[in-house]
Each structure stands twice: as structure tokens, then as C-alpha cells.
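Most newcomers find our protein records easier to grasp once they have seen one. Sequence and backbone structure share a record, each on its own labelled line. To make this concrete, we reproduce a full record directly below:
***
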Amino acid sequence: MPVATHFGPRPVTTPRTNYDNFVVRPVATCVGAEIPGVDLSAPISTELQADLHRALLDWKVIFFRDQTITAEQHRDFARLWGELEVHPFLPAGDIPEVVAFAKDDVTRGVENIWHSDVTWRQAPSLGSILRALEVPPLGGDTLWADMAAAYEGLPDAVRDRIDGLTAVHDFAGSFGQAMSTADLAKMQAQYPPAEHPVVRTHPETGQRAIYVNEIFTSHIVGLDPAESDELLHLLCAQARIPEYQCRFRWKPGSVAFWDNRSTQHYAVSDYWPARRVMERVTIVGDVPA
């Protein structure tokens, strides 16, 4: 069963709400805030970008409404935060750095499992920016979980148990399922399994967060398989606790920017056979520690 202590006895620090260039509208207690009045199609000043970065660190996912931007502007906004990845498995949009997610009556949504993006990389993502092009009349929301709050909510005995452990992250259990044996071997040579801390320390905030997920984490190093499975089940289940979550209802032109180092997300697949079209750009991060 998931463990929740409702922010006690170690309360999560309440994110701040005052910034120099905008006022945020929190959507949940510890994670998620909308930022009105920022036009992503306009030039982003150094001061505004710094404020947006502070809000991202504070809230872990920030949202923008009514944005009319091109794929190139989407990419260029993301580049303010660093190098961008070209995903080796997902379909690209009009430009290589943009991943296209198009779901309809033929292609169902399959991202309805809690995860953090590309943790199978040796240097996983800093963050992802997702833009809604077409949304269903009902459904298709996305949820985010604050994995730092989830870590703080663990009992002391569990925190002590996972301290210093590492886990293996591998794409083969997801993207590899549709590959031939030869193609899988070729891609595994290029993207071998990565070993990351079970609890990573955020390189900017210093917060510690659970860093395993249901899609990409295969096992915990050095543990008996049964113990590894039991512990992974417990830790992954923390993302499903509502007290650690926010939920976002998409509209055309909505944009979400989240920190993959401290969150997991879940795309609700409740809209079939309606159409949902999204585009995502992902920013390269550092090696977790």
C-alpha cells in the first residue's frame, strides 16, 4: 500500500508566489502553478527567463494558457534552458527536436503510467515542455506528482532503507517491445541501461526526491529480485497519492513545463476515440547524484 503522512512530521516547504515579472496561480498545494500574462511567442528577456526558472524550481511544473507558437518557437523557448534531445524512439514533428504525440480512434494513448522522461539515459532530462495542438472535448488531462514531497512523506524506516541504493533504468521494457532482436541489440549498444540513485538530490534546490518509475526502472542493484520488486512497488506507488499531485486540464494552446528531476507525470487515457495532438521538447539534464 502507498504510504502517505500528509506532509508530516516533515512538512514540505510551501513554494513562494511572488516573482518580479508575473504572479503565479497555484493549482495545488505543493506542485503546479499557472503563469498568466507571459507570451511565449515574444522575446524572453534574461530577467523573465530567470524568474520563470525560479518558478519552475519552486512549483516543479508551470503552465501557460492561450499560447500561439510555432514548433520553432517552442524549440527556441526550450533552448533557453540548455541542449535539447532528439528522441531515438518517438516520432518527430516538423523539426527533429520536437516529438509529436497524435492519438485518435486508431492510436490509443499509452502514457497513462507514472514516469519521468528518459531516465534510461545516462544523463536524463532536466525538463520537458509539452504543447497542446488539439484536445478532446472531455478527458485527456495530465497529472504531475511531486516526488520530493513523496520522499519526505516516507516513514523514517523506509528512508533509511533506500539511502544509498541505486537502480537500473532501461528502455527495453517499453520502447524495446516493438523492436526486432537485431534492432534491440543495436539500440541497447547505443543506449545501455543506466544506473541512477533511488533517491536523487536536485542539483539546484538540494531537495531529495524518489527517482524510480514504473516504465523504465527494472530493478534495484544488489537486492534479491523479490525484495527489489517489493521496494520498487512501494516507491513507485508514492506518485499515486493525491496529496502529492496536481491535475491540468488542457486547452488548445496550453503549455506545460515540468522538472523531470523532481516530478513524475501521468497522461490520462480516457478520451478514446477522440483526437488528442500534442508536441513535446525535452531539455538534456545532468547525471543524477
The mean pLDDT is 93. Helices lie at 46-59, 71-79, 147-152, 156-162, 181-190, 225-237. The longest helix spans residues 46-59. The CA atoms of residues 104 and 275 lie 4 Å apart.
